[in-house]
Amino acid sequence: MTGSHWLDETGLLNSPIILTNSFSVGACYTGIYEYAVREYRDKESGLVDWFLLPVVAETCDLYLNDIGAMVVTPDMVVRGIDQANADFVKEGNTGGGTGMVCQGFKGGTGNASRIIDGLVFGAEVMYTVAALVQANYGAKRDLHFGGVPVGRLIAEQDAIATAEEESQREDARKAKDGSIIVVIATDAPLHPTQLQRLAKRATVGLSRVGGWGSNSSGDIFIAFSTAEKIPRAPDFSWKPRVEQNIAVVQDVTINALFEGAADATEEAIYNALIGAEDMEGPRGVKIYPCGQDIQRHLGSQFFGSEPFVTLEKLLPCEEVTLGSAFQACHHSYDILILPILQCCPNLIGKRRQLVGIPLTVPSVRGLA
Fold first, then answer.
1. Rounded to a whole number, what is the largest CA-CA distance in the chain?
2. How do the domains of the chain map onto residue ranges?
3. HSE-up (13 A, CA, CB side) for residue 14
4. Residue 153: which H helix or E strand, with range?
5. Would you say 249 and 187 are in contact if contact means Cβ atoms under 8 Å apart?
């Protein structure tokens, strides 16, 4: 992730966050600068009027993308930032997640959020912690869904594909090394060290689905808060100066946010998997989504006669289909853009819920 040294040094995020493929980092980096120069260039000096190091993260989509063609250009990034809006985030085969493979299935972009009750000097408030993932990691045999080892079940019981199709997909299915980018956003007031701790909780959600950080797996997490508005360029003074009070959550009360970050990360990966559609790469490799396989195996053998979950039962608040299971959309650009401080309402302010599940079902953390 570019710009990470500045984030570690200052705790300030001064750039849009761009998610793309491994060979497009340079183009996206340039695109952020082109946008900044166009919008914020000082007429006298010709420079951007604040210090900016672009933040670009990548995962490798070489199975389903002619990655060497390097089709992403800086102007695509500029157009993407221009067109960023508050609409529901498309999931699956979209943005930087278009060509990604997750645990042997078609992966990609996913997001989810949790609403947390809080207190500000005794007054009740509600905070949101949300996760957006670009999932491109892991092996099929390790996939768990709601605690059920569906990956192992599918590998053991299904023999649908022909031997030729299986050999074409062998490399992608068996691969365990890969990458996942997790962006955690919250409107809770957290200082940089607390945000680092929050970002680490993405590991918990990732492990529930079946990721365990194998050798060369590029698992990168970033968290930011929109609660406090820090002046971008305050007047310089040699004397240390205090002119702003910053509110922060007390450490001893932060656990609910940690849990929310883990849960949202887990569900965001599910949504990336459920929202994906099958895709064929330039070398003839075809990768399929996992939706029907999950439905088949999350059934009576684990939870009695009542099915554990079907896609039709995943009904979130405000009539938005969980995981965009029936709204998966292809995107012409291999980039995903998150404008800082302009998070989609799906990231800041909406909660997911799961209905129609028997009360006797074991833990479904990350779904409810």
1. 73
2. 4-163+171-232+244-338
3. 24
4. helix 150-157
5. no
Give the Å distances, CA to CA, from 154 to 150, 162, 302, 357.
6, 15, 14, 22
* Two tokens, residue 163: 């031997």
**Tens-binned pLDDT, residue by residue, of the chain (368 aa):** 999 999 999 999 989 999 999 999 999 999 999 999 999 888 777 777 677 899 999 999 999 999 999 999 999 999 999 998 888 889 999 999 999 999 999 999 999 999 999 999 999 999 999 999 999 999 888 999 888 888 888 877 655 554 545 554 555 545 556 799 999 999 999 999 999 999 999 999 999 999 988 877 889 999 999 998 888 777 888 999 888 888 999 999 999 999 999 999 999 999 999 999 999 999 898 999 887 667 666 654 554 444 333 333 333 333 323 232 222 222 223 344 443 322 233 333 333 332 222 222 222 223 22
> Domain 4-163+171-232+244-338 is in which class?
alpha beta
What one-character-per-residue DSSP string does 40-102 give?
HB-TTT-SBSS----EEEEE--TTTS-GGG----HHHHHHHHHH--SSPPP-BSSGGGTT-EE
pTM listed for this prediction: 0.79
Residues forming the active site: 179, 217, 219
